[in-house]
């Protein structure tokens, strides 16, 4: 059973019992609304997987333009947000799940996991962090995503 709430801003909240169900919920929302997510934060809360998603809704864009004027409005290229396709989200969810499972079974952290859709610029830092992971929290931290363009500039 999944749950989704949206307020009047550009935030969405999803809650599901499994990563697979959460992926389906996110993909269905994208298909239904024809919009992508600017940023996702997925955490396990007890027996549920929760996701706070940021979208670029029309209301938010209009408010931003009215407040700053088109020329002065903040640009997304300087944002720490990272856009992921549904297939990339699925790759991340599966990789995270396997890393956690393998770690708990003493089989390593799935450093060499093959991602079919995830861009290498996103996968490479995760592999480096997984190689150094000593705890389950380290694995979770390895999957915290930041915009690689800004991270390489030292801005994030």
Low-confidence spans: pLDDT under 50, at least 5 residues?
58-80, 150-156
Instruction: Please summarize the sheet with the most strands.
Output: 4 strands, antiparallel
Roughly how much helix do the residues carry, as a percent range? 40-55%
Using the coordinates shown, work out and report the CATH topology of the largest domain: Alpha-Beta Plaits
Spatial arrangement of strands, main beta sheet: 1-2-4-3
Describe this structure in words.
The termini are far apart. This protein has 2 domains: 1-74, 2-Layer Sandwich (Alpha-Beta Plaits); 84-156, no CATH class. A 4-stranded antiparallel sheet has the order 1-2-4-3, covered by helices on one side. It has 6 helices and 4 strands. The radius of gyration is 17 Å and the shape is globular. Helix 4 (120-132) packs antiparallel against helix 5. The protein is 46% helix and 15% strand. Residues 58-80 and 150-156 have low confidence and may be disordered.
């Amino acid at each position: 059973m999944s749950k989704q709430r949206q307020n009047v801003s550009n935030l969405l909240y999803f809650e599901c019992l499994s990563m697979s169900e959460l992926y389906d919920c996110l993909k269905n929302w994208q298909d239904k609304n024809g919009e992508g997510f600017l940023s996702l934060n997925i955490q396990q809360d007890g027996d549920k997987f929760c996701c706070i998603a940021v979208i670029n809704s029309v209301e938010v864009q209009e408010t931003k333009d009215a407040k700053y004027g088109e020329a002065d409005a903040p640009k997304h290229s300087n944002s720490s947000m990272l856009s992921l396709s549904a297939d990339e989200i699925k790759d991340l969810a599966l990789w995270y799940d396997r890393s956690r499972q393998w770690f708990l079974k003493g089989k390593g952290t799935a450093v060499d996991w093959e991602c079919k859709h995830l861009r290498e610029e996103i996968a490479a830092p995760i592999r480096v962090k997984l190689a150094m992971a000593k705890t389950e929290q380290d694995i979770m931290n390895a999957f915290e995503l930041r915009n690689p363009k800004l991270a390489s500039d030292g801005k994030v």
